[in-house]
Amino acid sequence: MEHVEHDLEAATYSTEEEEEKHEQPISNTLTSPEDGSTASTREHVDIPPNVNQKLHSKGLATDNSGLVRWKSGTSAHPRRWPLFRKSYDSAVIIFMEFIMTLFSNVGSSIVPYSIEQLGTSEELGLFYFTTLYLLGQALGGLIFPPLAESFGGRTIYTTCAFGFGAFCALVGASPTVPAVVVGRFVSGFVSAMPAVVACGSIENMWNIKARIWLVHIWIASAVLALALAPAIAVAVSESPLGWQWLFYIAAILGGLMGIACLFMQESRPSQLLRQKVQRVSRTTDFRKLSVNHQDSKPSLSTFVQEGLTMPLRLFFTEPIVFLTSIMAAIVYAVIYLFTAALPQVYEESFGYTRLQGSLVFVSIAVGICFTILPRIYDIRVACRKDAQAIEPEDKLFGFYVAAPVLAVGLWWFAFSVPPLNSSASPWVSICSLALLGYSIVEFDNVLSGYLCDTYASRTASALAPLSFLRATLSGTFPLFGSAMFHNLGANYAMFVLAGIATAFCAVAVLFGVFGKRIRESSPLAEKTVGMGD
Questions:
Q1: Which segments constitute the Major facilitator superfamily (MFS) profile domain (predicted)?
Q2: Which residues are within 8 A (CB) of 209 and not within 5 positions of it... i.e. 6 or more apart?
Q3: 67 three-state secondary structure
Q4: 10: number of CA atoms within 13 Å, CB side?
Q5: Nearest CA to 93 among 268, 235, 243, 238?
Q6: Helix-then-strand count for the chain, H and E
């Protein structure tokens, strides 16, 4: 996420303190002080009056060493942009996430309509349409966050939106295996931008309390898209338009999103600061302004270190990152597995048509509505502790509720479908899917936020394993989902998933009892949390 800073400072800052921190010297432009240097050790620089005036007019200030920072209270900082400006940019980003996630989950539903034209098997069709898209997203999730951190997000958002439209058009216009392979992989690759970077963009513009709702809307919109995708895919495929028109529609929406992105503004504070200082230096011909070294554009070695090495280290050495990433990824991927497997349950057991079978996923969307309740609790916690530190564990309430809700929902479904239960109405099992919709949003929201709060200065690295695993598992689960339900039967296949969900309840207890102790025992987490004090 423009380094995925979901509620980044929430663990340690009140709203005013957080905004003050956000306005400290950041980014890099013409020169940057050496690591470890302070205002007292850097060389004194005489700032000409015209340069000071230019800086002041752009909402900037400088110390006597020429180090530039945001001026306190300036309206030029993204946190203090007008409400319409922030709302527009956030809405465009969330809409991008909705559309790109929706088209990530159409693959399983259109395979029966497309494999004859492509001349391929159902398994390969799933791989081409679903797995390749999500593997592309997994790769993009490793590349885009450090790029957005260093160079800002607006240009990348725009490029990704137009790229998404172009490669979706390729799939629609040329229904051949090579075109589908290239089109789905590249469109999945660019979909990583709103899927992984969007939360950081939201963090750039909104304070802690506003972010609780904005991040919730962002995640809920993605899960809503997953729930609606099967029905939309089947409806279009069975219409006179045919399955190819799904991708023409995606291409049109991609173009519209690209146009909308052109009217966004760069919200990365470090990038804005860099641009403003460069303009002042260029117009005044004064080259002694500097900015903080820590936000300078990284070298290739730094890029590899932060983008690849640190995420691997955190995943394999930090229990919190390991457990959280696996849980959130599995729960999110289950919906892709269900998209491939559940329609056959309702078609074979209840005589549903293919369209009727795809409509059962709307129940997942119903469950999303109830995720508003934990956000109200989060707001109350934030208000109650406004003047004191909020521990990361204080915001795990949603996970403590979602873990047993998920287990109940999956066990409920397992015991309410044939062959073990041939007398129950299909609505009994359909209603249980609402619990799944609730749980997916809560797992993704709360656990990603927990990682952000625990590894604040390494947020991108802490979330990279989760993002990569989520996309990879989402792409691979559909490949064995149908076979799993066919070979084991719907009941026993669901018993396996329900058993895993029950194990997650034990992890929730572990985090509730020992979470703080585990976090404080980690040198990486302890150092990061301490930085916020």
A1: 89-517
A2: 15, 379, 382, 383
A3: strand
A4: 30
A5: 268
A6: 23, 2
User: How many whole angstroms separate alpha carbon 317 and alpha carbon 333?
Assistant: 24
Q: Which residues contact 349 (CB under 8 A, 6 or more apart)?
A: 417, 418, 426, 490
Q: What confidence tens digit (pLDDT) does each residue in 58-107 have?
A: 888 888 788 888 888 888 999 999 999 999 999 999 999 999 999 999 99
| Cβ–Cβ under 8 Å, residues 443 and 406 | yes
Give the alpha-carbon dihedral of 107, 90, 310, 188, to 10 degrees.
Answer: 20
CA gap 426, 430 in Å, rounded: 6
Whole-angstrom CA distances from 22 to 105, 314, 362, 407, 530 are 37, 25, 40, 40, 17
Whole-model pTM? 0.88
What are the b/e assignments for 426-459, b being 16+ CB within 10 Å?
beebbbbbbbbbbbbbbbbbbbbbbbbbbbbbbb
What is the spatial distance between Cα 82 and Cα 410, in angstroms, rounded to a whole number? 45
Outline which parts of the chain fall under CATH 1.20.1250.20. Answer: 78-266+305-530
- Residue type at 377? Y
- Which long-range contacts (C-beta less than 8 Å, at least 24 apart) are formed by 110-113? 110/233, 110/234, 110/237, 110/243, 110/246, 112/354, 113/237, 113/238, 113/242, 113/243
* Tokens at 61, concatenated: 């200030």
Quote the tokens at residue 491: 């009941």
d(CA 228, CA 210): 27
Q: How far apart are CA 408 and CA 390, in angstroms?
A: 30
Q: Does domain 78-266+305-530 have CATH number 1.20.1250.20?
A: yes
What are 107-124's pLDDT values in tens digits?
A: 999 999 999 999 999 999
Shortest CA distance to 18 belongs to which of 447, 526, 456? 456
Structure tokens at 354: 């293919």
User: How many residues appear in the chain?
Assistant: 533
**Residue 204 is encoded by which pair of tokens?**
């750039």
